[in-house]
Amino acid sequence: MSGHSHYATIKRQKETKDAARGNMFSKLAKAISIAAKSGGGIDPNSNFKLRVAIDKARSFNMPKENIERALRQAQGKLEVEEVTYEGFGPGGVAVMVEVATDNRNRTGQEIKNIFERVGGHLAGPGAVSFNFESRGQFVVRKETDSEAQMLKLIDLGVEDMEETEDGIEVHVAPEKLSEVRRALEESGFIVTATELVQKPKNYVSVTEPKEASKAISFLDALTEHEDIQKVFANLDVPTEILSKL
């Protein structure tokens, strides 16, 4: 949507800054270990979830030895539970939080506190997830003629795409992620990010600067929690408002 930034774009910009400071590596390592443990082994060729986790780690220039260490840890005892929380943040923004924790009660209470500090609240299963759909997501590097790129993507059969500040977002069915990425790269596209996401079906536009800042700070607080792997929200902020924050 021209002139607007969805939270997915805002989050990518934050992740890039966190990666530059080295703050992303522990989370990326945890994601690799969990994918290897729960997704079917340490071979990324047969474990699709692991392939996505490793590709993301590499996109943030995570050292090879860190990736290998995470895979070794997956072969040991990893008593971690995966949990998804749903809730509403400032301005009624719908939020889904994917967690990996060895203490569900502790993590759940800490997440509840983050929501409540800004006047939000956790909700029951299904209260938020109905407004999201599981998708595979690529970010393709934009060239000068982004319109021509998008036409080329349509020729490749891509039906769901959007131009953003940092590239062109391409969404596909999760099971087609590897197939479509291969087709994109063979056609000359440079894929800068690959991820399994929960894509909002509808967005909440926050146009008041103070409320937008409050919502983004709240979502940042969630992403910074050590047990939280991914945060998805249907927040939409006009670019001119975002530039003032």
Helix/strand layout:
Elements: E1 4-6, H1 7-20, H2 25-38, H3 48-59, H4 64-74, E2 81-88, E3 94-101, H5 104-117, E4 121-123, E5 132-140, H6 146-155, E6 160-164, E7 167-172, H7 177-186, E8 191-200, E9 204-205, H8 209-224, E10 228-233, E11 235-238, H9 239-242
Parallel strand pairs: 9-11
Antiparallel strand pairs: 1-11, 2-3, 2-4, 3-10, 5-7, 5-8, 6-7
Helix pairs in contact: 2-3, 2-4
Give an overview of the whole structure:
The structure is a single chain. The chain has 245 residues and is an alpha+beta fold. It has a domain at 4-74: Arc Repressor Mutant, subunit A. Helices cover 43% and strands 26% of the residues. It has nine helices and eleven strands. The chain has helices spanning 7-20, 25-38, 48-59, 64-74, 104-117, 146-155, 177-186, 209-224, 239-242; strands at 4-6, 81-88, 94-101, 121-123, 132-140, 160-164, 167-172, 191-200, 204-205, 228-233, 235-238. The strands form three sheets. It has a four-stranded antiparallel sheet. Strand 2 and strand 3 form a beta hairpin. The chain is globular, with a radius of gyration of 18 Å. 34% of the residues are buried. The model has no long low-confidence stretch (mean pLDDT 88).
